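Review the following:
>
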Amino acid sequence: MYNPSMEVKKWKTVKTIHNCKYTCTSANDSHLFHVQNNEQEKPVDNVNGQWLPSSPSSSPGFSAVCYFYGREIYKLHQGQVPIGLIESNWGGTNILAWMSPDARKVCNNTASINDQNTPSHLWNGMIVPLLKYAIKGAIWYQGEANAGEPDRYACVSDFSTINQ
């Protein structure tokens, strides 16, 4: 299974990735932003991170799925549209931490956990500050930290509404 925080340099299933200098180019107008891990009890206004131009030195540590998604979007637009990729993930966390309080109400979930998996804490610290951006596309990938508990989020039939 794919870990959403897996970096480009660790993506072993694609032979051309072994040497990132040939695939992680700076010949496009893509920029990368990695949101630093930040759990918050209440929504915050800003995230910590830095925009970097896509290059052989910045791309290897970036989310592989995010990077290649952006690269394909860039190709689709024939290099005419600048692409900003925002990576917001925390390996080993469960879906409840990433759900908005409203989405949790829909699921009638009142779980109480006190770590990075605390319900809505990663939503508050790592997603809410991004909502002010004009985001035109998003990839949502839930890892396997709570794959054995699908009933916790089975109430959401349309995952595009999970974080409204």
The two ends are 27 Å apart (CA to CA). The chain has one domain: 8-161. The CA atoms of residues 8 and 64 lie 4 Å apart.
